[in-house]
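Lecture 7 notes: from sequence to structure.
We start with the chain below.
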Amino acid sequence: MVARLRAVLFDMGNTLVGAPDGPDPWYPAVMRHVAQEFGPSPWAEALYRTDLWPRSSEPYRQETNRWISEWLREHGQLLNDAEVERVRRAFAAPLPDIFALTPGATEALRWCKTQGLSVAVLTNTLTRGDDEVRRDWERFGLGAVVDEVISSYSTGWAKPHPAMFDRALASSGAWADEAVMIGDEFLADVVGAKRAGMRAVWISAAPIEHAPYVERPDAVIESLLDLPSLLEPWLGEGP
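Predicted C-alpha cells for the same chain:
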C-alpha cells in the first residue's frame, strides 16, 4: 500500500520560476550590489564569471565562502571571514523582476496548502541562503504558502545529495514515502528524491526513455497545471 501524501517539495528554477530568454538577468543586479558594498571592484566580474563548483573535493559538497576566499586570495585580494561574507551577500542579489512564476505554479502551491500538505522549496544556489530565497516568495505574495525554503548554500550540500531532502522531511514531519519531489532536473530532482526513498514527479516534454539513469519518476507532467489532478489520488492512499 502506498503511503498517504503529506509533503510536497518543489524545485525552484524552471519548475516554479521561469528563466527568461536573452542576456543574463543576474549580472547587472550582482554588479550593482557589489559596487554599492565595495565601490569599484576590478575582481567582481571575473569572480562572477568563474565556476566555483570544481573546487569541491566531494560530490555535491558546497562551501561557497571558502571557495570565494580561496579565489580572492589567488587574485591578490586578502579578505577576512567577515569581508568574504560581505562579498557573498553582495552576490546574493534578489531574484530579478524579469523572472516570473511558471504556468500553474501559484495554483499548484495554493492547492497543496488547501489540502493540508506541507510545502517546501528546495533549490540549488551558489550564494543565496534560505532567508534570501524566502524573500523572493514573500515578494511573489506566496510567503504564507511556502512552509520551508531549503537552499544548498545554507545546507552545505546540493541536490541530489540526501542532505537537502533530509532537511525537508525533518521540517515537514513526514516520512520519505509520504513525500513527493516535483522538478525538471532529472538527476537533482528525480534521482535525488528516489534515492532518498521519496516519490518524484518529473516536469518534462522529453520521452522518459531518454533519461540517463536507472531511477524512474512516479509520474511525468509537462507543466504544473497538471499537478493537482495528478496528486489528488495520492491524498487518500495509505493508512
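Points to note: Residues 7-19+99-236 form a domain with the Rossmann fold fold (CATH 3.40.50.1000). The chain has a mean pLDDT of 94.
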